[in-house]
Amino acid sequence: MIPHSKILVFALCVLFGLLQITPARAAAPFSFDTAPGRLPKDVVPEDYNIAIIPNTKDLSIAGTETVKLEFRKATDTIQFNSLNEKLAEVTLDGKPVKSVASDDEAQLTTITLEKPAAAGRHTLRFTYTGVIETKPQGLFAQSFVKPGGGKDVLLSTQFEATDARRMFPCWDEPAFRATYTLTVTVPSEWKVVGNMPIKHSARHGDNTTTTFQRSPKMPSYLVEFSAGDLARISDHVGKTEVGVWTVRGQEQSGSNALANAKIILADYNEYFGLPFPLPKLDSLAVPGGYTGAMENWGAITYNDQNLLVTPASTLETKQRVFSIQAHEMAHQWNGDLVTMGWWDDIWLNESFASWRAAKETDLRHPEWKWWEGEDGSKERAMDADGQPNSHAIEQHVTNELQAASSFDSRITYNKGQAVLRMIEAYLGPDTFRDGVRAYLKAHAYGNATSADLWNGLSKASGRDVGAIVSGWTEQIGFPLVSVSASRDVGGYRTITLSQKRFLLQGTDTANPHWNIPLQIRSGASGTPQPVLLTHDGQTVRAGRWDEPLSVNADAVGFYRVLYDEPTLQLNAKAFGTLSDGDRIALLDDQWALVQSGAQELPTYLALASSMGSNLDERAWTQILGALSEIEYAERDTPGHDAFCAYACTIIKPVAKRLGWDANADETPGIQKIRRAVLSDLGNWGDEKVIAEARQRFAGFQKDRSAIRPDDQAMILGIVAQNADDSTFQELHQVAKSARDETELRRFYSALMLVRDPKLAEQAVQIALSDEIPAQAAAIRLSLISRLSNWHPSLGWSTFTDHNDILMKPLSNFAPQIMARSVPEDFWNAAPLEQIEAWLKAHVSEEMAPELARGMDAARFRVALKKVLVPAADSYVHGWSPAERAPELLRELNR
Ligand SMILES: [Zn+2]
Predict the structure, then answer these.
(1) For FRET with 435, which of 174, 736, 764, 836 sits at 20 to 30 Å CA-CA?
(2) What integer is the mean pLDDT of 525-550?
């Protein structure tokens, strides 16, 4: 017998003995002079003084701006960004300039001087008029319904990526870091918030002028200003004042966020090794505005639904609030203190914040099993990255106007996060943290590129991290690792490994290569061994011949694994005893291999069937997702009902074990499984479940406390799917009586699940009506997308007929949603050529690569449907509920 420690020693020998790493390619450390961008680098802003008077009546801005400039050489031209602004009284060092030309098309202002100004310090000064936006780009006015009723308006900002220039003319590229002093004049009854604490304010008549303290050096996209009838709750973490701002009357709903912020800030101060550098850190709950959150330094803005927790909130809301706060607060270091040099490296901000947030959420809420849940986001990234037209994590952005489209949640956020986690696991968490600390320290108040991060990690680990990782950030796609096992003397196992790009459809003739940090576990438990796979044919000793094997232990790696038949049989036989992470990795890979045509559907269904009443949440989410995909493909085919009956038998053992009501000691994961299986049973026609849901809904109509907030979406959803006219009207009444936006979103979303076609038309009218208040306008699109689950062509016609009203609230993300998400959402609604033609006519030329990706995914769904339906039908045909699954497992194990 070889003890586990020996296996590890052997593995490390393989690692260092055979290291043949492909060298790093393009990435170079940050340099201001060579950082991409449109603006000339010879005139550099050092300090801004900006005073604005916003007028919400006529949506105008009156501004005065003084910028201290460093001329790096003598020049007669000053160029910077502006949009919808008119400059006047322009002087340099107090002297009028020769000419000023603002070009809104190019978003540039060019100032020409009478004669070249010498190298050195100069002061530019001007007044200007600008525009307050009504959507979240630049300084925007947001109307909203107040907590107690009645309409109001507030001001807030959203600048990333390129919209600071809409509030004030500036060098609006991330490499131009400068200090900012902001002065604002607003009605005296309003509160004002900026990046920094207030320095002084003076009331004059109905208005008050407030000046905030000067900020540290930072990029323009992180400047923040909000004003309105707001209120704050606050506390301290060390010297930092931590605050949560809400619309007045909602302060208590922010107390959960304040408690979270204190915990996260203390953890990050320690982890990053540099305490939060500003005197205060505020979080603002903005009603409406946008769908996400923005990491403005010292003044993070959130859509209020991502920050407030009310008595109506569910566990999912609390989880979302914590994890989004953890993400935005991680940006205070990675993004704000150290900023990517150019938008190519936006992943440095986003992947890093996503990875750090997941780590923090897992640390502070182990009961949420956060990394298991994050496996779902990794799978979404792999779905996107398994398509031929995917893109690399680092993608070239030639001008900053394309920057908004580089925020691709699946690649920039989820894949990047997964790659960082894989590297952290490979280097070890302490070494990785030391590398991050070194990187932040070296670039604090400055800019960086991927190469700078790799250098920090290399310094800490003593390895050439760039050489290992660059293939993951610079190449598109990810590998499929093939495993072939052979038996050694004494019953031990040697595996031979090789790789090729994994694709759901098509082939890649370029034959790309990755240095793959594997985690290999032999047996159902034990510490995995790290192995770097550098070349095809590499061999590794891996435990006993008769033990199960995971080459992606705990599902940490961003790659898939294809086991040879005997190893797959071993794994299937031991399926029930595998660790949760190894079981998840196997389910993920087997399903993806079915989708790609490399495995037959029954091999996957046999695994799913052998879950029995095991209660791992992520495994069930994976299985329910796969079954739902088959069920969706089966709709309108003769085999649909038989498949539903089959799918019900897979999940019924769990439903039976869990019942309808939560026990006091249940984990959140078990409660989620209960809701998910009941929801699908109702969806797939289980009469008992539908009857129970109806009965519970009847009780809920009389007493709103009869169903816990966590269970409301599930129960109302089942009722809506099976609703007749009078039930639909009852559901509508419930929606109209929502007490806050949390309830409103939940109830209106349930309404959209109605299956009856006539009622679906009523649902569309409701989704488009004023019943959805201004601050929730962004949910209209998701309501229509939900409705199209049962009514694809009605969803598509609604989307095309009412495109403006649906897309406007999504502002700068709208083009990407149109090009990328719409084909994936509506692939079943109309012929693909028709969908593509409509989208081509409605998105800009710059979105063509995104549209190609969206259409790739849509074509894949259509092709997959053609494969899944006959495969599922032939499997279900002749299948007998009690015997078929074990029999299949036996077949697989033969
Ligand atoms: Zn972010």
Answers:
(1) 174
(2) 95
